[in-house]
Amino acid sequence: MILFDYIYYRIYYQYKVRWNESIPGLYALYALLILSFAQLANLNSLLFALSIYFDKMLPREYAIAISCIVLILNVFRYRNKKYNILNSRWENENQDKRETKTGLIVFYIGLSVFLFFYSAVKFGKHFAT
Nearest 5 degrees, angle CA 6-CA 9-CA 11? Predict the structure, then answer.
């Protein structure tokens, strides 16, 4: 969970510092949605792969239920000023380390999106024939 906490913290921090919006709840929403999207992209890629492996499609209702559960768990995890706790943990982080980790976060999110679309295309081709 530390990885996801850090990703949430860094996304929140980026919105707070870069865009300087006046509504802190919006930072939390952006961070929550981006983190959840990356997690769901990875989870769905895994579900696509398992569907191909077992040669059976997962019912759409299950995929929607799993997505809702992930989003709800993230909402409960990161509600009520969770950023302040995470900020106290990482606010004094070395700048070089922070830049490296930011690059890794961008890579993680990019790779998550790529794998999701790649596996969705493979999944679609597999069951289209």
Answer: 110
Q: Which helix (H) or strand (E) holds 6?
A: helix 2-14
- Encoded tokens for 10: 């860094």
User: Which H or E run includes 126?
Assistant: helix 95-128
> CB of 126 within 8 A of CB of 54?
no
**DSSP character string of 65-122:** HHHHHHHHHHHHHS-SSHHHHHHHHHTT--HHHHHHHHHHHHHHHHHHHHHHHHHHHH
Token pair 């707070």 is found at 16
Q: What is the pLDDT of residues 28-67, one digit of tens each?
A: 888 999 999 999 999 988 888 888 888 887 788 888 898 8
Largest Cα separation within the chain, whole Å, is: 55
Its sign, for the CA torsion 109, 114, 115, 117, is: positive
